[in-house]
Amino acid sequence: MKGFGRCCALALAACLALAGCAPALPPQPTLDELLAETNAAHQAIDNDGLKSEFIWRKPVDESGEPISASEINSYFTDIADLESVDPDLVLTQEQMIEDVTYLFDAIYSCYGNYDRMGGRAAFDAAEQAILKECAQHASLSVKEFQKLLVPHFSFVKDAHFQIHGQKTNPCWYPFFFREVAFYEDDGQYITENHKIVASVDGYDDLTELFKRSISPKGEIVYYPVLLKDSTTCDETLTIHYTDGGTQVLQCEPYDYQEQFENADQLAIPEVRYNNSIPILQVNAMQSQTDSDWYEGFQEGANILGGSPIGILDLRFNCGGQGAVVVEWLKNYAKTLVPSNSLFINAYSGKQMNSVRNLWVSNDNILIILTSKWTASAAEWMIDTAYNLENVLIIGDNTSGEMVGSIAYVQLKNSKLIMGIGSKENIIPDTNDYFEEFRGFYPDLWAPAGEAEELAVKLMENLGAVQAEGEAASPAA
């Protein structure tokens, strides 16, 4: 019956269009309506029972005795002490086998997500497969050896687990189709010219394809967005309308990588303004011991927390120290904001953050800008901000680096640097909240390079701030 009613509605819309009486576009939501809808979606994340999913990591030696903390720590190398790598250095078969054995001993002893990623059965199988492949080569260069290793770890769904900087799985990048803006009305997608989408070739679920976004005018619209496990996409979308028309849309290239590579990761955070809205750009989560950085970071929290609207720009932020995230939000909200996820040391059981199903009130609006480079501790900021009222996340989907942590193990012969962390992060799995390598979805999708301007336009269009150059209304 529901399908019959939808068919009738489409038929009626087509008849109205043919008769020259096109249906009106749906009204734009008010600011209060947008915030209410977003708050409800954020509050719907259920993090009850995460502690019951925690897996203690208790590695033992060949005699069954617990491996000591000092032995575990002996595998790790401080970042300042890491040796350089010669990718063209030739390794003998014996050297490769020695490195593989050392690597899997380190993984067993040091990796906090060892059991969560399949445990001994999965890692032993990977080790045997790698050793078998090494046996086929009398020698390999270091770069060839790295290339040999990577495919065998695809079962490790942890973006912090890396083989000399290379992840075990591809990340998922957003591709926007913005030639036409669509307005949503009860599951239907309508163009400005009142053409109603009937179908899209290859995509049955239109609500999954069309993402809520922001037009150049600051209106809330919907654009098709595809996620691809590559930074290139040549796919087109064929749209069929109820009036019988067809339109082919081209995707925009993903071009944010160059901007990220040119960003100063050590920049001291400093508030700037865009149409009276304070913006704090934070390019990394540095340590509290960096006093100049930390002072600018927390001063930004005070300024944004005291403003009706504030923007926290995390588009260039690949992470760092998670502890400063907690302090920033506490300073912004003037109270502790708990996280949704449980970040815990798999060996000691020490909880690294406060996890409660608690909603923190906030009279102001905090906009967080994201990109595919927003990762790790910066994603922890988003995970925690989900429990704060009136937060809008605008930009790309994030990097997807949350389930673990990173420390460095350097192999003896190849000198390849392995990212192996002792932390375990347990993330709510409700409402498609987060996925490793895919990240968090934004509340409003916007290409990262345009996210700030579109966020400001949205606030102008919703009447939260006055558009630049616009005369103020005379007093009554």
UniProtKB/TrEMBL annotation:
SUPFAM superfamilies with a match to the protein in the record: ClpP/crotonase
One example GO MF annotation? serine-type peptidase activity
- Signal peptide, first to last residue: 1-24
BP GO terms, sorted: proteolysis
Residue ranges of domain Tail specific protease in the record: 279-432
Q: What's in the keyword line of the UniProt record? A: Signal
InterPro entries attached to this UniProt entry: ClpP/crotonase-like_dom_sf, Tail-specific_protease
Q: What is this protein called?
A: Tail specific protease domain-containing protein
Q: Which organism is it from?
A: Candidatus Faecalibacterium faecigallinarum
